[in-house]
């Protein structure tokens, strides 16, 4: 007796809309990850800036205490002048890096 061999092939054709949605989701995920990386970098930079400002303020406070302890009006005036110069630099930097009218980030709407 002879045996017959049958081969069955089943092909699935993906839904084009589903493929498009998956591609869109993957693209959004890539964009989100890039945005998250930018946020992490900026947070790190801000932490460095804050640490620098804390160190600066601590140093100025110590200089004021030292000048006051020495009862030296010239040293006290030098510290006051340095504080004024630093205040002007900080104010200029904050003004230069603060947008006048910050625009809100666009929100992407995905419709199925």
What can you tell me about this protein's structure?
The mean pLDDT is 79. The protein contains two helices and no strands. It is rod-shaped, with a radius of gyration of 32 Å. With 112 residues, the chain is mainly alpha-helical. It has a domain at 19-92.
- Report the helical percentage: over 70%
Structural class given helices, strands, pairing?
mainly alpha
What is the count of helical runs? 2
Overall pLDDT? 79
What string gives the helices and strands in order? HH
Uncertain ranges:
none
Provide the gyration radius in Å: 32 Å
| Terminal residue distance | 57 Å
The main β sheet shows up as:
none
Count every beta strand, where a strand is a DSSP E run of 2 or more residues.
0
Shape: rod-shaped
Beta fraction: under 5%
Top keywords for this entry?
single chain, 112 residues, mainly alpha, 2 helices, rod-shaped
Summarize the helices and strands and which ones pair or pack.
Layout: H1 16-70, H2 73-96
Helix pairs in contact: 1-2
Short summary:
With 112 residues, this protein is mostly helical. The chain is built from two helices and no strands. The protein has helices at 16-70, 73-96.
